[in-house]
Design brief:
Elements: H1 8-23, H2 27-40, H3 48-55, H4 66-87, H5 92-102, E1 108-114, H6 120-124, E2 129-136, H7 139-148, E3 153-156, H8 159-165, E4 172-177, H9 188-197, E5 198-209, E6 229-231, E7 237-239, H10 241-250, E8 253-266, E9 269-280
Parallel strand pairs: 1-2, 1-4, 2-3, 4-5
Antiparallel strand pairs: 5-9, 6-7, 8-9
Amino acid sequence: MTTNGFDEQALDAAYRKALAAEKAGRTEAAATAYRACLGIDPDDHVGARLRLAALGVGETPSSAGEAYVTTLFDQQAEAFEDILVGQLGYGVPGLIGETLARLGFEHFDRALDLGCGTGLVGTVLDGRVDEMLGIDLSENMIEIAFDSGAYDHLYIGEALGFLEDFDEPEPFDVILAADVLPYLGDLAPLFSLAATRLAPRGLFVASTEALADMAGDGAAKGANAETGFAVGSDHRFHHGESYVRAALERAGFELVAFEPITVRMQEGEPAPGHLFVARRTGG
Ligand SMILES: C[S@@+](CC[C@H](N)C(=O)[O-])C[C@H]1O[C@@H](n2cnc3c(N)ncnc32)[C@H](O)[C@@H]1O
């Protein structure tokens, strides 16, 4: 046992077994070992639920889970910008900055960056926002965002919980989420909570990874018209365009823009996605 409350050695052994079986194409054995991981660690630090879903043998979870996201990004924080931006050409924060400027949204009073990571969005919007808040599950990512100097306030926590519980009633005129929705499957709770925190006609700006383009070997398993999202072979959630549009409308948003983008390179190929700018309707 460790401070995490589970047997880390047993988890490590089961996880290695699962990865080896998956690599060898032994899906049943891999699934058994991933289920063993969940038996040892129900909080799922290794992301076994995502892997089962990607194998097509487990239910699609509604999110990647806090334990997995925190572990993954705490590990990746230091190398994040070198790998993602430098090697894989990740450019969503820059696209957000360009798109908002092109649409005539030059200045914001109060912005909230959900899943702010190392602070790339804050850096792009620096000088265009009076008060910039950021929130992320990963303490190591937040430390780098802090060093960027682009945020007035930073919080370590889960995005939906933050939107629900944040005790400052003052609304935001923009809420941003760059490359965060791939860690959230069911978008309805996020969209409704974001709407409650926005000023009337406030903007919600976010990127997704596209579902329709997942084809052939990279096919997302379990994708269907009912859910509109699925876990891809990259272990991230991919969202269908019509699903995202309908979920925004249901949460009280009208679309200002919904554009195809390349999120980054993935195994030498452009990873397709969407960038949307939605405006809260009603009073
Ligand atoms: C791919 S990174 C993107 C970071 C940043 N938005 C950017 O564009 O560079 C995804 C970030 O979202 C955070 N994240 C994912 N799910 C989250 C959640 N439910 N609540 C808070 N942060 C989350 C991760 O910890 C990670 O820092």
